[in-house]
């Protein structure tokens, strides 16, 4: 497979999709998702890990609110990974991540993730980067093989223009100002460099594949993430435990 | 390398070692160990993970008390791994282990460890066992490569006769009765089967090597564990941070 070039991948929905139809389809998917989540929780054999990555203002928070907010919070945990604390920094980079991997029956959403450690502009030398990619692959394999965890990795792909528009909105809309960070615009100028880092990640850590989600339009982004989660849960072929099975366990 | 046969390895100290001399040597080693621990804590770049495995009554608790009990408890943590809790069991088998890996500057002692999951008589099928061995190797590599952790793995090698003697002592000595478990004698009858499981572990998980410690005599066992820990810390070539370096960091 040749290396993915993000600049060649659309950030808008494919033309055939029509906003109102997709919004309606999403509502149906969320109903399925709700039922499947209950089944995941009840059957208690699988778990789902949703990794959300994307540049600033790519819509990670909105995805969490509008997709996973529709589910029973008893079965969903969200963990945001910010700058590591001193204690976290004193351990290997996967230490803080591993603590939040999903228990059987649960959906865990990562708002940013272990991938932050291979997405730094001032990244360490090649040898260390390669070792981190390998460690990440091993880690994801551990979860998949030894705890029946399905891992869905989403890159929310927003155009530079849309990113700048959203960041500017943060400086003007009182309800969004709390999200404003003076560094955001500096980082936005390095959009191309971050894209390159992501392209490396897609190449090196694709044993469990990434989905690149066109994210300029929220309605399409939410639809696609919800749909992929729904399909993944469906593929688990779960069954409600019967009364008999419950009785024999106790 | 041909497979290790535990039945061919002595459980007594080599003849050239004399008890009184060794006890005196151990005292000197513990002094070194104390100084090196302080240096580990102060320099804050490395960490040490000591994995203690061995059959029931092989002397794990005693090793912890008599070797690591001599150190500053601020820099040493001990974690015992017993039967997994329900929450632990709902995650991959390394989840509970990873939480207790040492922070930089620290010595962490595991009283039993992740190896318990490949040392069960009713073990899962070969394919799953192989996957666990691989996951363990990857996990240890993660700690070594990504947090500067030196891992020392000790198998306390006690003879079946000595084990039975110690278990019997537990039924008679009021200070040891709390350790008695009716299952101990049943498990002791399967000494040979457990040895086979350990031999598989030594073969499959030797990227970070094991030390087989003759453990019929406590004085030799303690000496050897202390010595190997001392030597490992010495090999880290640590230096106290100077005043200048401290100032420039703050």
UniProtKB/TrEMBL annotation, chains A, B:
<feature type="domain" description="Polyphosphate kinase-2-related">
    <location>
        <begin position="18"/>
        <end position="239"/>
    </location>
</feature>
<dbReference type="InterPro" id="IPR027417">
    <property type="entry name" value="P-loop_NTPase"/>
</dbReference>
<dbReference type="InterPro" id="IPR022300">
    <property type="entry name" value="PPK2-rel_1"/>
</dbReference>
<dbReference type="Pfam" id="PF03976">
    <property type="entry name" value="PPK2"/>
</dbReference>
<dbReference type="GO" id="GO:0006797">
    <property type="term" value="P:polyphosphate metabolic process"/>
</dbReference>
<keyword id="KW-0808">Transferase</keyword>
<dbReference type="GO" id="GO:0008976">
    <property type="term" value="F:polyphosphate kinase activity"/>
</dbReference>
<protein>
    <submittedName>
        <fullName>Polyphosphate kinase</fullName>
    </submittedName>
</protein>
<comment type="similarity">
    <text>Belongs to the polyphosphate kinase 2 (PPK2) family. Class I subfamily.</text>
</comment>
<keyword id="KW-0418">Kinase</keyword>
<dbReference type="InterPro" id="IPR016898">
    <property type="entry name" value="Polyphosphate_phosphotransfera"/>
</dbReference>
<dbReference type="InterPro" id="IPR022488">
    <property type="entry name" value="PPK2-related"/>
</dbReference>
């Amino acid at each position: 497979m040749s290396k993915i070039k993000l600049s060649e991948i659309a950030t808008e929905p494919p033309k055939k999709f029509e906003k109102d139809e997709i919004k309606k389809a999403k509502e149906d998917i969320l109903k399925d998702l709700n039922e499947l989540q209950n089944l995941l929780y009840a059957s208690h054999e699988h778990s789902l890990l949703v990794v959300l990555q994307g540049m600033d203002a790519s819509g990670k928070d909105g995805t969490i609110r509008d997709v996973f907010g529709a589910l029973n919070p008893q079965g969903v945990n969200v963990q945001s990974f910010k700058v590591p604390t001193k204690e976290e920094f004193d351990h290997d980079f996967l230490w803080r991540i591993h603590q939040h991997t999903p228990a059987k029956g649960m959906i865990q959403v990562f708002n940013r993730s272990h991938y932050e450690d291979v997405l730094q502009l001032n990244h360490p030398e090649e040898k260390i980067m390669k070792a981190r990619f390998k460690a990440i692959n091993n880690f994801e394999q551990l979860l998949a093989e030894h705890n029946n965890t399905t891992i869905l990795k989403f890159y929310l792909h927003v155009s530079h223009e849309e990113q700048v528009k959203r960041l500017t909105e943060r400086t003007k809309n009182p309800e969004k100002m709390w999200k404003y960070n003076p560094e955001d615009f500096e980082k936005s100028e390095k959009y191309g460099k971050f894209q390159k880092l992501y392209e490396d990640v897609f190449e090196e850590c694709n044993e469990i594949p990434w989905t690149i989600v066109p994210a300029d339009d929220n309605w399409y982004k939410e639809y696609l993430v919800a749909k992929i989660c729904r399909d993944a849960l469906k593929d688990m072929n779960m069954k409600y435990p019967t009364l008999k099975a419950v009785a024999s366990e106790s």
